[in-house]
Amino acid sequence: MTPDSIKRYARHLVLKEIGGPGQQALLAARVAIVGAGGLGGPVGLYLAAAGVGHITIIDDDIVDASNLQRQVQFITTNIGMEKAVVMADTLKDLNPDIMAKAIVSRLTAENAETLLKDHDVIIDGVDDFSSRFAINDAALALKTPLVSGALGRFQGQVSAHTSNGTGACYRCLVPDIPPEAETCSEVGIVGALAGIIGSVMALEVVKIITGAGQPLYGRLWLYDGLKAEARTITLPQDPRCTACAGRAS
After folding, report:
1. pLDDT of residue 105
2. What is the CATH number of the domain that holds 12?
3. Which of 125, 190, 212, 215 has the most other CB atoms within 10 Å of its CB?
């Protein structure tokens, strides 16, 4: 590491759980963020600041004025521009040590494995269940850890899923698309909640890459912003899961 890098990551280097080896692992890591919106923004900003060396942002949307209430990676002059491209440029400006790549494409069941291969951690920051299922299934097929977040109104959640099929996958939590599934545009969301949930997701990624602490494998972290309360519950593997049952290796 250069003197400039040592200064940039000084607060990581003094942590015994990260230190020099952990920072080197972050700099060598490749992370894919699916969704450059309310969750993808804070995740990307914190991972870039942490020195994650290669970040891929996958999103086919453009910046809209309604995004600016919570998607803090964008500014007013970005309206009408491609989210993935703007966010990649922002991350590179934040930390010139890293590489950020924009993929302006919608992730689907057909292209998920191609887009997500060769990454060390996959991040699910989307807000529709068909994309979530495609990300989950690709992560299982690629044997890549997955960190997933969701939010709406004043509530949010974060989970992490192993790469070897021995723990619960996202489909163990949500086996089918709920008939009452709603998006943030329908139910509303307080902007600051996206920062809270996205930051917890970024922390989970740092833990997975560096080996610090205990990632949320097999657990679900739930946050209620109105009550300022959080709790963690066990997320068992469903032996009937159509995605992960029988995949342990």
Report:
1. 95
2. 3.40.50.720
3. 125
Q: Give me the residues of the chain with pLDDT under 70, please.
A: 165, 180-185, 246-249
> Which residue in 38, 69, 70, 5 sits closest to 198, CA to CA?
38
Edge-to-edge strands of the sheet including 219-224?
A: 99-103, 54-58, 30-34, 121-124, 146-152, 155-161, 219-224, 229-234
Structural domain includes residue 142: yes
Please report, as a single letter, which amino acid is at residue 90. T
**Contact by Cβ (8 Å): 206, 50:** yes
Total residue count of the chain as it appears in this document: 249
Domain that holds residue 198: 3-234
pLDDT in tens, 69-100: 999 999 999 999 999 999 999 999 999 999 99
Please indicate, yes or no, if residue 73 is contained in any of the structural domains. yes
Q: Is residue 239 part of a domain?
A: no
The per-residue DSSP string of 60-104 comes to --B--GGGGGT-TT--GGGTTSBHHHHHHHHHHHH-TTSEEEEE-
Residue 243 is predicted with a pLDDT of 87
Distance of CA 220 to the CA centre of its chain: 14
* Beta strands 54-58; 30-34: pairing state: parallel
Residues 6+ apart with CB under 8 A from 65: 76, 79
